[in-house]
Design brief:
The complex is a heterodimer of chains A (455) and B (127).
Chain A (H helix, E strand, L loop, with lengths): L1 H31 L1 E6 L4 E4 L1 H7 L3 H4 L10 H4 L2 H11 L4 E8 L5 E12 L5 E10 L1 H20 L1 E5 L5 E4 L1 H7 L3 H4 L10 H4 L2 H11 L4 E8 L5 E12 L5 E10 L1 H43 L3 E4 L2 E7 L4 H18 L3 E8 L5 H17 L2 E5 L3 H10 L12 H11 L27 H14 L1
Parallel strand pairs in A: 12-13, 13-14
Antiparallel strand pairs in A: 1-2, 1-5, 3-4, 4-5, 6-7, 6-10, 8-9, 9-10, 11-12
Chain B lengths: L1 H8 L1 E5 L2 E5 L6 H17 L4 E5 L8 H16 L3 E5 L3 H9 L8 E3 L2 H8 L8
Parallel strand pairs in B: 2-3, 3-4, 4-5
Antiparallel strand pairs in B: 1-2
Classes of the chains: A alpha+beta (455), B alpha/beta (127).
C-alpha cells in the first residue's frame, strides 16, 4: 500500500509536473509561432497575436470565419481541399509548407502543422494549427532555382566531383563539346584537354586549387569530341556543403572560340596596319634621304659657267663632310664636262681653319690629277690672315681675291681672252701655264692677275 | 701572257710623232711593267716627241702602279719626251690626292684635246 500510495503520490506529482511542463511548452510555442484553432468544420475559434499579425487580420475579423478565408480563392473549391478537411476531422495530422493569403491578398508561405486535438474518448475535438512564416526563404529558394535554371538555359554547365570526374552536364555543354551525356558521365575532366596540358604541372595545380576551394576563372582551351580546339570563357566554382566540405565543382562556360578567332584575325589586321605604318615610315625615310640629297646637291652647285670652266660658290659653314661632298661632286662634274678650270669661290664662307684649308688643298690636288686646274677665289683678307697665321702650306693652292680675278685668269689661260704678251707669254694654256711649275705659281699669278687688272 | 694581254687590251698608236697609249681597265704590276718597257722602247727607237697616256679606262690605280707611271714619265723626260696623263677618273683622283705623293713634273689633262694642245702648243688652240 505504501508502495502504491507512494506511486500514486508520485504519479500525481508527475502529472502536475507534466502539466506544468506542457503549459510552459505551449506558452513558448504561443509566443514564438502563429497559432490558430479551428473547430472540426474549419471555423476559426481563436488566433494568437502572431497569427493575426502574420495574416493581417484583427481578431474579430477572423473569429467565426471559415478557414477558407485564408486560402488562395482558386483552391477553396478543390477536391483536395475538401479531402484535407475531412482527413483532419478523422484525426489525421498534416504538416508541410502551405500557401495562404493575407487580408490584403498577398501570398504568404507557412511552415505549418495541423494538429487534431483529441478528447478523452480519442475523438477529434478541434484543430490547432501552428505555423511560422517561411515566405522569404521560399521566395529566395524560388529565385535561386529560377536563376540556376536561367543559367542552365543560357550557359554550358558541367559538374564534377572534386577529383574531376564528370557528374552531369547540361545540353548546351554537350552540344558545344559534341558529346552525349552517357559518353562523359564518370569520365575524368582530362578528356577535354590536350594530352600535353593534362600532363602539365599547371593542370595539377589547377585542380589542387579547386580542391582548396579556390574559384578559377579564365579563358580555357579545351578540345571537343572531334579533337578541335574550343575556347571557353569559363569559371570553375567549388561547391561546398553546409559544413564547408567540398562536394563538387561546377563549371559555367561560354563558347568564345569565334571571338577568339576574330581577335586573332584582328591581331593579324593590326600587324598588317603596323606593316603599313612601317612602310610609310620607310617611305618618309626615303623622301627624307631624297630631300637630303637634293639639299646637298643644292649646297654644292657645281656649275659650268663657260666652256671648260666650272664654278662652285661655296656658302656657309664648311666642314669635312661638306668638303668631301664638294670633292666628289666636283670630280664627277669635271669628268662629265671635261672642264679644264675649276673656280672654288669661298667669299660666302665665314671662316677657314686648318682642316678646311687642307681639304681645299686636297681638292686642288685631285682636280689637278684629273687635268683640271683649281682656283680658289673670294679669299677675304681675314681668311688670308688666318691661313698665314695657322701656317698652312698653301703653295699648292692658287688663290685670288675675287671671283672676277679668277674668271679673268681662267679665260686668259684658256686663250679665250687675249692679253698680249704680258705675264704669261703665250696665250692659251701652254705647258708653262701650270702643273709643271706649280709650286712657284701662286704669287706669280697674283702679280700677273694684278697686271691683267690694270690692263 | 703579259704580251698577249698587252696586244689585246693596250692600244698603242703613233700619230704624227705622238705616241698614244691607252691603258687597259684592269691593271696589274706585270701588265704595267710590260707597258712601261714597251713605251720606253718605242720612245728610244722611233722619233717620238710626245707620249699621251690615256687612263680613262682605268678603274683602279694603286700607289705602286702610280709610282710606275711616274717612273715612266720621268724616264721619258730624261729622253727629252713630254708625257701627258689623260682622263684619270674621279675615284682615282680622290684616292691619289689623299696619298703622300708628289705630282710635281706631271702634266694632267682632262681630255685628249687638252693633251694634244699640250703636245702641239702652237699647232692647235683649245676647242
Amino acid at each position: 500500500m505504501t508502495r502504491s500510495g507512494s506511486t500514486t503520490r508520485r504519479s500525481k506529482a508527475s502529472t502536475a509536473e507534466e502539466l506544468q511542463d506542457a503549459l510552459a511548452v505551449w506558452e513558448s510555442l504561443n509566443n514564438s509561432s502563429a497559432v490558430i484553432e479551428f473547430d472540426l468544420e474549419g471555423t476559426v475559434l481563436s488566433a494568437n497575436a502572431n497569427f493575426l499579425e502574420l495574416m493581417g487580420y484583427r481578431e474579430d475579423e477572423l473569429i467565426g470565419e471559415h478557414h477558407s478565408l485564408l486560402m488562395p480563392p482558386e483552391e477553396t473549391a478543390s477536391a483536395a481541399y475538401k479531402r484535407f478537411w475531412s482527413n483532419l476531422r478523422k484525426g489525421h495530422f498534416f504538416s508541410g509548407e502551405f500557401r495562404r493569403c493575407r487580408k490584403d491578398g498577398s501570398t504568404v508561405w507557412l511552415q505549418a502543422s495541423y494538429n487534431p486535438v483529441l478528447n478523452s474518448a480519442g475523438k477529434p475535438q478541434k484543430i490547432v494549427k501552428i505555423a511560422s512564416d517561411i515566405t522569404a526563404i521560399k521566395n529566395e529558394n524560388a529565385q535561386q532555382t529560377s536563376m540556376i535554371s536561367a543559367i542552365e538555359r543560357s550557359m554550358a554547365v558541367i559538374e564534377f566531383l572534386p577529383d574531376g570526374t564528370v557528374l552531369k552536364a547540361n545540353p548546351i555543354f554537350l552540344a558545344l563539346m559534341g558529346y552525349t551525356l552517357e559518353e562523359i558521365i564518370g569520365k575524368p575532366h582530362r578528356i577535354f584537354v590536350d594530352k600535353q596540358e593534362a600532363a602539365s604541372a599547371e593542370y595539377k595545380q589547377f585542380w589542387a586549387a579547386l580542391g582548396r576551394g579556390e574559384c578559377q576563372r579564365a579563358q580555357f582551351k579545351r578540345l571537343n569530341k572531334a579533337g578541335e580546339t574550343v575556347w571557353l570563357e569559363a569559371s570553375y566554382n567549388p561547391i561546398v556543403d553546409a559544413n564547408g566540405k567540398l562536394i563538387e565543382v561546377v563549371k559555367f562556360a561560354y563558347d568564345v572560340t569565334d571571338t577568339f578567332n576574330q581577335a586573332l584575325a584582328l591581331v593579324g589586321e593590326k600587324s598588317a596596319q603596323l606593316e603599313a605604318a612601317l612602310e610609310e615610315a620607310r617611305e618618309a625615310e626615303r623622301v627624307r634621304l631624297e630631300l637630303d640629297r637634293t639639299l646637298q646637291e643644292m649646297s654644292t652647285p657645281v656649275t659650268p659657267i663657260w666652256e671648260g670652266i666650272l664654278l662652285l660658290p661655296l656658302v656657309g659653314i664648311v666642314d669635312s663632310t661638306r668638303t668631301d661632298d664638294v670633292m666628289r661632286k666636283t670630280l664627277d662634274r669635271i669628268s662629265q664636262t671635261g672642264s679644264r678650270m675649276f673656280i672654288l669661290d669661298i667669299s660666302g664662307v665665314p671662316t677657314v681653319d686648318t682642316a678646311v684649308a687642307n681639304q681645299l688643298i686636297k681638292i686642288t690636288k685631285a682636280t689637278r690629277i684629273m687635268g683640271c686646274e683649281t682656283l680658289v677665289s673670294g679669299v677675304a683678307s681675314s681668311i688670308a690672315h688666318t691661313i698665314v697665321e695657322l701656317g698652312v702650306d698653301i703653295s699648292e693652292l692658287r688663290t685670288t681675291a675675287t671671283l672676277r680675278d679668277a674668271f679673268f685668269t681662267c679665260l686668259t689661260e684658256m686663250g679665250i681672252l687675249s692679253v698680249g704678251a704680258s705675264g704669261y707669254g703665250q696665250p692659251g694654256y701652254g705647258p708653262s701655264g701650270y702643273g709643271q711649275s706649280g709650286p712657284q705659281q701662286p704669287m706669280l699669278h697674283r702679280n700677273s692677275q694684278r697686271q691683267l687688272h690694270i690692263h | 701572257m703579259a704580251g698577249t694581254s698587252l696586244d689585246v687590251r693596250t692600244s698603242m698608236a703613233e700619230v704624227d710623232g705622238l705616241l698614244l697609249v691607252s691603258l687597259p681597265s684592269e691593271l696589274s704590276d706585270a701588265v704595267l711593267q710590260r707597258i712601261v718597257r714597251d713605251v720606253s722602247q718605242r720612245v728610244t727607237e722611233s722619233g717620238i716627241d710626245g707620249v699621251i697616256l690615256n687612263l680613262s679606262a682605268v678603274r683602279l690605280l694603286d700607289l705602286s702602279e702610280f709610282e710606275m707611271v711616274r717612273h715612266l714619265v720621268r724616264t721619258n723626260a730624261l729622253l727629252g719626251v713630254r708625257t701627258v696623263l689623260v682622263g684619270i677618273r674621279p675615284g682615282i683622283a680622290a684616292y691619289l690626292c689623299e696619298m703622300p705623293i708628289s705630282t710635281r713634273g706631271l702634266i694632267f689633262r682632262v681630255d685628249m684635246a687638252g693633251a694634244l694642245a699640250v703636245c702641239r702648243p702652237t699647232g692647235h688652240a683649245t676647242a
